[in-house]
Fold each of these.
Amino acid sequence: MHDSRETFVNHAFVVGHPIRHSRSPLIHGYWLDQLGIAGSYTRQDVAPQAFPAFIAALRDKHPKFVGGNVTIPHKEAAFRLADRPDALSEELGASNTLWVEDGLIHATNTDGRGFVANLDEHAPGWERADRAVVLGAGGASRAVLQALGDRGLAEIHVVNRTVARARELADRFGARIHAHGMDALAEVMQGAGLFVNTTSLGMAGEAAPELDFSGLASGAIVTDIVYVPLKTPFLQQAEQQGFATVDGLGMLLHQAVPGFEKWFGRRPQVDAALRQRIIDDMEH
Ligand code: ATR
């Protein structure tokens, strides 16, 4: 144990490839300052072939390095290489948060928790939706479907360009999930209380299809896990059609909370000033 707060500096990281656009250092840096914790959080650009060695080295660097976040393209490898992936990582086949304990690398996945915490903050009561539609069936969709199922949503429709991927997720995450191709989108949106975009459609510079949200239930919520731009084409369209929207930035902020708490021992708050700091950074 280290007994001097002043000299005890914990280091955490976000590892990915590429990594220069990651906003995680801003988030964790903000919390370290706010809570007066002597620690650091840095970007680590590690190519896929070097990732196993990076993980192995982590065990030796503890306690100086306490853990970190994992992003594209390493989330599946992080799960496979961790000594102690938790049940959620097993279920998703991917981990985004690592920490070292007793010389062993533990792993979890906080994407789904970030997703629901964002809705809880900005659209309380959202889970009363009878039916949810999730567009997309990639890694992000997996975490969203798991979290929606966990919160007990009765009926979830996953719609994807490649139907086989949607079917695979429906088979994996239970009977309440139904898989469809894009041609069924308008039909399953009828009466839905929650619409989630998990695809890259409409991300900075990409075109997004026009969607007719008018069949959604009154009071329905439309959310996007993409946060660049903050108002994605889907969110703009939904707003124009009179629906409440929740942008994806809150998911990024909330998914960071459990890791920070593990590494630095304090539970940080997602506050308005932090959100604004990320928005300012995106604008520059
Ligand atoms: P992530 O892990 O971020 O979810 P991914 O695994 O590459 O990323 O998944 C991207 C999702 O966006 C998929 O659902 C993909 O559809 P396919 O499974 O058919 O590839 C969807 N997507 C990407 N570009 C798309 C496009 N132009 N039209 C429709 N769907 C698209």
Note: Residues 1-6 have pLDDT under 50 and may be disordered.
Amino acid sequence: DWADLNDIVGAAVERTGRLARDHTIKVDIDPGVLLLCVDPVLMEQVFFNLLDNACKYAPPGTVVKVWARRTPNYVTIEVIDQGPGIPPEASEKVFDMFYRVDHGDSKAAGTGLGLAICRGIVEAHGGTIKAEPGLNGAGAAIVIHLPQSHDIDGLAARISADAEPEGT
Ligand code: ATP
Ligand code: MG
């Protein structure tokens, strides 16, 4: 289905609720990325898991950014935080089920499933997801690439034309 990335991210942000009360979540989605061919419910789960992690592992008062841009064949979406980051040697393992990094913070409870679920959903859409260092090498950036080779602008125009009442 065609879904609006702003709606998906907005719903995920709303779902983080009080989890995110100590963080500032900034959403920077390029207007060219409005429509995505994704399952909106599953993709909301991806962003919820990523925002949940960012708010769980990054200290209070820091900024969490959701950023999205489009190239002709791909959409790139990143969730970037200012926390401890993911060590390079763990950047693949964190996507394994039940794998957890010890950040020395016993309060950050979890099962170790969140990122494994994200990878399953993104790969089901033909995309990739990886963990990288955040801005200036600090914090974590989870980078998603989704293939979007369709003529999204043309499709958006057709959808809005279809939405016109008959006879207009
Ligand atoms: P769950 O999501 O199932 O509640 P979890 O958060 O531990 O538990 P994942 O979301 O799969 O599991 O993350 C795996 C591990 O990767 C985490 O335990 C954490 O150590 C590390 N990690 C994930 N996201 C971040 C992040 N934004 N910053 C630092 N470490 C992270
Ligand atoms: Mg998690």
Note: The first helix runs from residue 5 to 16.
